Amino acid sequence: MLGAIEAGGTKFVLAVSEDGLTVEHRVSIKTTTPEETMAQVFAYFDKYPVTALGLASFGPLNVNVRSKGYGSITNTPKLPWRHYDILGDMKAHYPDVRFAFTTDVNAAAYGELKAGAAKGVQDVVYWTVGTGIGAGIVSNGKLLQGYSHPEAGHMLVRRDPRDEFAGFCPYHHDCLEGLAAGPAIEQRFGKPAIELAPDHVAWEIEGNYLAQACMNVTLTVAPERIVFGGGVMHQPQLFPMIREAFKEKIADYVEYPALDDYIVPIALKDDAGVIGAFMLAKEA
Questions:
Q1: Is residue 139 within a helix (H) or strand (E), and if so which, with residue range?
Q2: Which whole number is the average pLDDT over 204-217?
Q3: What pTM, to 2 d.p., does this model score?
């Protein structure tokens, strides 16, 4: 049996599967402190013994297998979890289980590659746009991570000329996340993104920033497909805006697939992270 942990900043999703594609059972628990949350994690997997487990966590993480701190959550703003050795704790409780360890957004990228919107390709960038912005990158069928993992949500972008918002990122202010994540939209316009009309100028500005993100990854890692998920991307009008702005910005400098097949919405929805974690566990 395969296990999956999708450890998010708000909740942990715990699941088991026989084949890695079908979720046999799942529960969701609140993310509070390591002591409280992990006690529930251990209780769950004590009932559902697994042979391999994919652990996909919020970060930043230490994913460098040659590093002394490998397996730890590092400088997270969730202070109780800072420098917590989440992988080490899991291994101590389940010494006979094989583990795969990566970020939550990497696992979602892998899930979409294996069974979702990127099935059939080898190179994909998965963006999640919600409370924050993150990117999972798969290159030649393998997750892109080495000394660290991608933190592409904090890439710098050119400011939209209509946008005077300072940016909400406490580290960089007007990076991609600071300008285009859900809280940036709400703080800029005074109401949650879900309450803005489909023709609101907010979406043109958002499309501009996300098109820049697509251009940047196209010119650096050249994916075969770019997949978007997250709460902000529940706005279907965003996709044609992103594609059109991307086409204008890239200016035919490089070739890319047909845009309707290149910049696409997530297919697995809420299952992307756990399916990806199952797949990584299976390979472990």
A1: strand 133-139
A2: 98
A3: 0.95
